[in-house]
Design brief:
about 190 residues; globular; 8 helices; single chain; Hypothetical protein af1432; mainly alpha; binds fe (ii) ion
Length: about 190
């Protein structure tokens, strides 16, 4: 089984601040086992075909690929929108974790309609577990909790909170772009 912190070695190296990088590694290694093998969408809808593949012991599945593609988009958007390096690192951590609990804490057959809330709970649990204090922790939590935006299944009226900042907006946009049916990333070829 590929370890998430190994699969995202390059993306972790983009995290400039040591405290945030150290947390990201521990956080990734606490992801549910299914994360590296499940497809991004259990129904095949709402995601491109390359991110709907099932992985194996040595091949990453579509969900992990979706997150890798999104990291690339977030890394690029952070530069375009002139995020500070701490904001950039925070956006990457939120990206890595936004779909960590996509199939629920128990890991069922289908993606859950509430995975954004569960993802936020999981992020908080990891912060506590590692007694980690990192910059923009609240922003990361909000970015995860509201990453579905207008497509939040748990509550269709749930859009973005009043204080939704650049970090959350970039994560949401990157998620949407990386999922579009006609979008492909050459580094998977
Ligand atoms: Fe999601
Ligand atoms: Fe996603």
């Amino acid at each position: 089984m590929i370890k998430p912190a190994d699969y995202y070695e390059k993306e972790i190296s983009w995290i400039a601040h040591e405290r945030m990088r150290d947390f990201a590694i521990k956080y990734l290694n606490d992801f549910p086992d299914y994360f590296m093998v499940k497809p991004a969408s259990s129904s095949g809808k709402y995601h491109n075909s390359w991110s709907n593949t099932i992985g194996s012991d040595d091949v990453a599945g579509g969900l992990a690929k979706h997150v890798k593609a999104m990291c690339y988009v977030v890394h690029s958007l952070a530069e375009a929108e002139m995020l500070s390096s701490e904001e950039h690192d925070a956006a990457l951590i939120a990206t890595l974790g936004h779909d960590a609990i996509k199939y629920g804490f128990e890991g069922g057959t289908h993606t859950t309609g509430t995975h954004e809330s569960e993802g936020a709970v999981f992020f908080r649990q990891c912060l506590q577990k590692y007694n980690a204090t990192i910059p923009y922790a609240d922003s990361i939590c909000r970015a995860i909790e509201f990453h579905q935006g207008r497509w939040a299944k748990s509550d269709p009226a749930k859009m973005f909170p009043e204080d939704f900042d650049k970090i959350g907006q970039i994560v949401h946009r990157a998620d949407m772009v990386a999922s579009r049916p006609m979008v492909k990333f050459y580094f998977f070829d």
